[in-house]
Amino acid sequence: MAFTDEQLERYSRHIILKEVGAKGQKKLLNAKVLIIGAGGLGAPAAMYLAAAGVGTIGIADADEVDLSNLQRQIIHTTQDVGKAKVLSAKETMEAINPDVKVNTYRTFIDSENIMDIIKDYDFVIDGTDNFPAKFLINDACVMAKKPFSHAGIIRFKGQLMTYVPGQGPCYRCVFKNPPPKDAVPTCKQAGVIGAMGGVIGSLQAMEAIKYILGVGDLLTGYLLTYDALKMEFRKVKLPQDTKGCAVCGEHPTITELIDYEQAECDGVHL
Amino acid sequence: MADFKIDDTVDITTVVCPTTFVKAKVALEELDDGQILSIKMNDGEPVQNVPRSIKEEGHKILKLIDNEDGTYDLIVQKVGD
């Protein structure tokens, strides 16, 4: 595949980079990334991946755009209120970069559909806002041997980690099970500062891009936490022993996907 | 030019910085280690900057030929794959 002059100009700041070049840009154009949740995390991730020329982007979300989303979900505009989030996200991504093919999945992921949705993608971004979805994405990615980026945001805090099969702990190695229902407030109850999605979602996009390019060190084996009020980033080394993990360990006890029950007021994606 | 066996040529006289270097870099990436690219560029900013950027990428500048019409041919040997 040869670049058009327009592509050379569009991606010039990438191609100039030693770590990218024409070869790296072609890898991006041939890559397929799935973003689950078109919310606070998924919005910036989707926009940066589209701008970067990731050739195929899948976006999964069952919700419609709500006025209360717009404080942080920058892929949607005021005119999009009431529209399916996946459609609004697709329109923004295509407007940013017509090179990108966007696949939409207007559904909440569950144990029935997730394997089929993730199977065609090279990398998965967890942009969901609830523990059942986070454990489901982790278990499905472990079983399907898909690398993925986990992240969560609440109030002025955010965290993320990257899972690559065989290269360190999964989300369940660290957080064995979802917390009891309603033990942890969702961002709907607790609030979240809008720019937090921008910080953490952009880091997720960066991890996806580095994975596709095969450059640098990924956040595998570490949890990065960000406290905006203290203006502190911490890169916490995780236990490297995954043998005993219920899903990615040597003798997994979880061999089928689980649909955990959602907290009462959940259901709106970050 | 007869001194070199040119494997490919690229004309960057119709574009401006940074597309000049981008086009040259993409053309170099298409070549194999040791092959030679002739890059036609305008006098001025391209001649100032493109050879330097190519050198920084680790390639070998063999010659800069003044075409005496406001353009130059930069002869570059690709280093690495």
From TrEMBL, chain A:
There is a cross-link at residue 187 (Glycyl cysteine dithioester (Cys-Gly) (interchain with G-Cter in ThiS)). Gene3D superfamilies: NAD(P)-binding Rossmann-like Domain. Keywords: ATP-binding, Metal-binding, Nucleotide-binding, Nucleotidyltransferase, Transferase, Zinc. Residues 11-246 form the THIF-type NAD/FAD binding fold domain. The active site is at 187 (glycyl persulfide ester intermediate). One of its GO terms (cellular component) is cytosol. Pfam families: ThiF (PF00899). Binds 1 zinc ion per subunit. Its cofactor is Zn(2+). Zn(2+) binds at residues 170, 173, 245, 248. GO terms for molecular function: ATP binding; metal ion binding; nucleotidyltransferase activity; sulfotransferase activity; thiosulfate-cyanide sulfurtransferase activity; ubiquitin-like modifier activating enzyme activity. ATP binds at residues 13, 40, 61, 72, 85, 109. PANTHER family: ADENYLYLTRANSFERASE AND SULFURTRANSFERASE MOCS3 (PTHR10953:SF102), UBIQUITIN-ACTIVATING ENZYME E1 (PTHR10953). NCBIfam families: adenyl_thiF, PRK05690.1. This is Thiazole biosynthesis adenylyltransferase ThiF. It comes from Hominimerdicola aceti. The gene is thiF.
From TrEMBL, chain B:
It comes from Ruminococcus bicirculans (ex Wegman et al. 2014). Residues 10-34 form the UPF0033 domain. InterPro entries: TusA-like, TusA-like_sf. Gene3D superfamilies: TusA-like domain (3.30.110.40). This is Sulfurtransferase TusA family protein. Belongs to the sulfur carrier protein TusA family. The lineage of its organism: Bacteria, Bacillati, Bacillota, Clostridia, Eubacteriales. It holds the Pfam family TusA.
